[in-house]
Amino acid sequence: MEMTKSLILFCTALAACLALAAAGWSPGTATFYGGADGSGTMGGACGYDNLYNAGYGVNNAALSTTLFNDGASCGQCYRITCDRSRPGGQNCKPGNSITVTATNLCPPNYALPAGGWCGPGRPHFDMSQPAWEHIGVYQAGIVPVQYQQVKCSRSGGVRFGIAGSNYFLLVNIQNLAGSGSVGAAMVKGDKTGWIHMSRNRGANWQALAGLVGQGLSFSVTSTGGQRIQFLNVVPAWWQFGMVFSTNRNFIR
After folding, report:
1. For the whole model, what pTM was predicted?
2. Which residues on adjacent β-strands are paired with residue 185?
3. Which range among 2-16, 43-57, 121-135, 152-166 shows the weakest confidence by mean pLDDT?
4. Is pLDDT of 183 > 50?
5. Which residues, including other chains, have CB under 8 Å from residue 101's CB and lie 6 or more apart?
6. Where is the signal peptide (predicted)?
């Protein structure tokens, strides 16, 4: 009887794993940081600063190097569910999953073997504590998960945070729906043609041009392949540190 029960449980877990794999899920692990209110997750390697103002809130995560992809994953959304079929799964809250936005990098810790949980080759999410506690028991500290990238749903349009200097422009592109992340960007001043931008760090894109005093337009291509031109969204009186919102967003 006991052997039959064990076999049934094994088959059930195996069937669940196969179903997740067929649905595009991948195995990983998850920890948490930033305090009970998530305030310690504000800012981060993507450059979003205040995550509420940028459109992301507390459901966020720092990604291991493998997932962060040198910042190309900034803004992407991941559906995460605790995996009860793997060691540590007893610390899962059954039936719960949550969608988080990639807003930070979880760097390797080479004081630990293989760089720790965020070491090279390991798909790991260091989630905000409120998001993590939706799927895992606090005392555990780490749980096995299954994850998949999903479309992002956002409130409002794409936002452009302006920084840089008189000699170059640095723009943080925020609040993308659809794929959530930027694949390419261009900027145009009132007195220039379109200028190609390059990724500086995370979600920051730069143009090596002095554009102070000019109204700005942007052309943004999402990693989902959709391109939108945001014309005349930044007036000529802009100053460094300002953020400008639009009423348009991506669907893919």
Report:
1. 0.89
2. 220
3. 2-16
4. yes
5. 56, 59, 60, 61, 75, 76, 77, 152, 180
6. 1-23
